[in-house]
Amino acid sequence: MPLGALEKDWVFHFCGMIDRYLALDGAIGSELQQSLTPADAVALLKDGVRRSTSGEASARDRAALLSDAAGGQYPYAAVLSCIDSRAPVEQIFDAASGDLFVARVAGNVASPDLIASLEYATKYAGSKAILVLGHTRCGAVKGAWAGLEDGHLTGLLGRIQPAVTVTKAELGEEDSASNLDRCSTVNVQETMAALRKESAILAGLEADGKIAIVGGVYDVATGEVAWVD
Ligand SMILES: [Zn+2]
Question: What fold, for 5-228?
Answer without folding.
Answer: Beta-carbonic Anhydrase; Chain A (3.40.1050)
